[in-house]
Amino acid sequence: QVQFAESGGGLVQPGGSLRLSCTASGIIFNIYHMGWYRQAPGKQRGLVAFITSGGTATYIDSVKGRFTISRDNAKNTVYLQMNSLKSEDTAVYYCNGHPGSGNFGSWGQGTQVTVSS
User: Fold this and answer.
1) How far apart are CA 4 and CA 11, in angstroms?
2) Radius of gyration of the chain, Cα coordinates, nearest whole angstrom
3) Residue 42, exposed/middle/buried by CB under 10 A (0-12, 13-18, 19+)?
4) What are phi and psi of 59, to 5 degrees?
5) How many angstroms separate the CA atoms of 90 and 5, rounded?
6) Are the CB atoms for 35 and 45 separated by under 8 Å?
């Protein structure tokens, strides 16, 4: 069964940094396209950053230049390095992925990121 475990969230001041980690189990990780998603209070869950199985990364405009998605296939792990954090980045962050045209996994608990002074 596909499982993703997020970690690394916390409380930071505006302008601070966090690195989120997502470790996958029960899959052949290197063939999965992986994404980071977030859900802010009162809003729907949406994509933040995406990285293909081949390592091509894309970002939504609001995080470009501040966030970096990367992956370490040997560790079955996807990272999201978040710099210059803003209050509007506050959300629960989730990871998920799918193998090519295959199915996404189940949504897990996520990790809370709070940016506040």
Assistant:
1) 22
2) 13
3) exposed
4) -140, 155
5) 19
6) no
Q: Collapsing DSSP states into helix, strand and coil, what is residue 100?
A: coil
Query: Is the pLDDT confidence value at 2 over 80?
Result: no
How many other β-carbons are positioned within 10 Å of the β-carbon of residue 59? 18
Q: Minimal CA–CA distance to 24: which of 15, 13, 33?
A: 33
Q: Tell me: the pLDDT tens digits for 37-72?
A: 999 999 999 999 999 999 999 999 999 999 999 999
- b/e per residue 18-37 (b: at least 16 CB within 10 A): bebbbbbeebebeebbbbbb
